[in-house]
Design brief:
There is one protein chain. With 280 residues, the chain is an alpha/beta fold. The protein is 51% helix and 13% strand. The protein is built from eleven helices and eight strands. Strand 2, helix 2 and strand 3 form a beta-alpha-beta unit. Helix 6 packs across helix 10. It is globular and about 65 Å long.
């Protein structure tokens, strides 16, 4: 097939690598001419342009722009597409995107590959990024079944594990395991920066090792993405943050009152339950 990718960053570029390996002809569109040139040089896409009309011949188009640009970019793009084109996105928030695009494009299917890292740009793109990773699809009752089947086949070819759910349920789930960790991690960094004793602060910087690296990674990532997570998944994220604050308060209470046995029980429960969320 001819497959279009609008937005040639980490996710878009990585999709390009894998789709080409499946024998598809990949068309890429980016806002910057330099990105288009780089994507072709790297072999992520067969053709690239800053002009959306390049995607007019695509059978399927993946929208891989930042969350806040997905809807306006689709509104511009559909002027160039035949009604048969399947359009999907990769945004980490689904409800506002699905609600905005479904009424204007029947063959739209919300999507979210649970893959990536804190790097950005076409240079960060990598092959096999989606292998054995969850890929969520959020079709609605009016979504054509043949369009769903085509997208499922493409996603399956990436080596991903497909999940179907309603957009609202997706957003509530990712608020716990994706968006909340960003804010918690960012809060950790901010807390460390609040140390006013410069000698202690400098010592902490020098002593920071794997524990700090692991827990601060997502909080030290792309600020634009963090803001958009909060902006477009606001209610679900606020609920998760309030629940998290209750748990922090509980830990404070256990430590301040020296309830060591109860603290150990809570930590043991966490140790037992963590594997449910982490699949190696």
């Amino acid at each position: 097939m001819k497959i279009g990718i609008l937005g040639l960053g980490l996710i878009g570029g990585s999709l390009g690598f894998d789709l080409q390996s499946q024998g598809h002809h990949v068309l890429g569109v980016s806002r910057r001419e330099s990105t288009c040139k780089k994507a072709v040089e790297l072999g992520s896409v067969n053709e690239a342009s800053v002009d959306m009309s390049l995607l007019a011949s695509a059978d399927v188009v993946f929208i891989c722009t930042p969350i806040g640009l997905i809807v306006p970019q689709v509104e511009q793009l559909i002027a160039h597409l035949p009604r048969t084109t399947i359009v999907t996105d990769v945004g980490s928030v689904k409800t506002p995107i699905v609600e905005a695009i479904t009424p204007i494009w029947e063959n739209f299917i919300g999507g979210h590959p649970m893959a990536g890292n804190t790097d950005v740009g076409i240079e960060a793109a990598q092959r096999n990024l989606f292998v054995n990773r969850p890929y969520v699809l959020t079709p609605v009752t009016t979504t054509p079944t043949d369009a769903i089947a085509v997208l499922e086949e493409i996603v399956r070819s990436l080596g991903s594990i497909i999940y179907h759910c309603q957009p609202e349920k997706h957003d509530r789930a990712v608020s716990w395991i994706s968006h909340l960790p960003v804010m918690v991690s960012a809060s950790l960094i901010a807390a460390c920066l609040s140390e006013i004793d410069l000698e202690i602060a400098h010592l902490a910087e020098n002593l920071a090792s794997s524990g700090f690296r692991d827990t601060s990674r997502v909080g030290g990532g792309n600020p634009e993405l963090g803001v958009m997570m909060a902006q477009y998944n606001r209610q679900a994220l606020l609920h998760s943050l309030h629940q998290y604050r209750q748990n922090i308060d509980e830990f404070i209470d256990l430590i301040s009152q020296e309830k060591w046995e109860m603290l150990e029980q809570k930590l043991q429960l966490n140790q037992q339950q963590r594997p449910k969320f982490i699949k190696d």
